[in-house]
Amino acid sequence: MQHADLIRLAQETPLRLLLVNAGEPDSLTWSGLVQPLRLAAKLLGPQRLHVDVRSPDKFAGEALRPWHLVLLAADEAEAGLRPANMRSLAARCRAAPCWGGVGAGVLWLAEAGVLNGVRSALPWSLYPDADAIADHALFSPHLFEIDGACLTCCGGAASIDFALTLVDLLFGATVQAQVKEVLCVERVRGLEERQRMALQARFGVLQPKLTEAVTLMEANIEEPLSTDEIAQLAGLSRRQLERLFKQYLGSLPSRYYLELRLKRARQLLRDSNHSIVQVGLMCGFSSGSHFSTAFGALFGNTPREERQRKLSE
């Protein structure tokens, strides 16, 4: 998938990135976010990347600056420490070309109303706190989301994956590999990977049929089920199933299932030695051309290019 806003951002020299820390400086969420980005800035030099840090109060009180990317971060355990004047703080964040939140910052931005209609990676443990705004925000079970100019991450250990993915998208795989080596990180989890317990936390009690349908999809990657078969096994009509997926996941079952299979294929291309043909078959694609076309439509490159990228790293 092409991220047009980040691609434009990568052309800025130097790229000015601001991290607004609303939590403790020794939390996993904060250290996982700031360390990879500061290492990248050290490797690239101030002429290419400038990373700065502010407290919410200092950021809200200073004059507007030409930040290119602003991220509001706090650990999910600090969700009750909501910054004062959150609406004006959210507006300051949105003034940047790209902006977003990490951990509890995602909840605060959603409560301020700036994530309405935006796919956002809210930490699964904060879903109960977001009941009042769940009808307006599209909370995702993934580790992080890039939806246009808005970037969100569930925080915790996923902050490292999120920061390293940003380094890759903005400055390339070589710089990311150098940062990974310093941090002793072997694998970066991607956009397609879910938070553990996310689906169960959000839907398990209220929408057990939806959780069951997604579980069926995840268990049948190599030999995909039809939408009618999934609906029947989950004890729903096709129309009921489509309504649940549209309401809670913002997608049709068939589309969600296809993306699930393609994201699994990308993971295999990156992390296994299976041939491209084998990967396609393992993810339910009997036609190589269909696999390549669908992969390109979702990720913006071909399976062969994805594999080549892994080899070059």
From TrEMBL:
SUPFAM superfamilies: Class I glutamine amidotransferase-like, Homeodomain-like
Species annotation: Massilia forsythiae
A molecular-function term among this protein's GO annotations: DNA-binding transcription factor activity
Gene3D superfamilies recorded: 3.40.50.880, Homeodomain-like
Official protein name in the record: Helix-turn-helix domain-containing protein
Pfam families the UniProt entry points to: HTH_18
Sorted UniProt keywords: DNA-binding, Transcription, Transcription regulation
Keyword Ribonucleoprotein part of the UniProt annotation: no
Keyword check for Amino-acid biosynthesis: no
Domain annotation HTH araC/xylS-type: ranges: 211-309
Matches recorded under SMART domains: HTH_ARAC
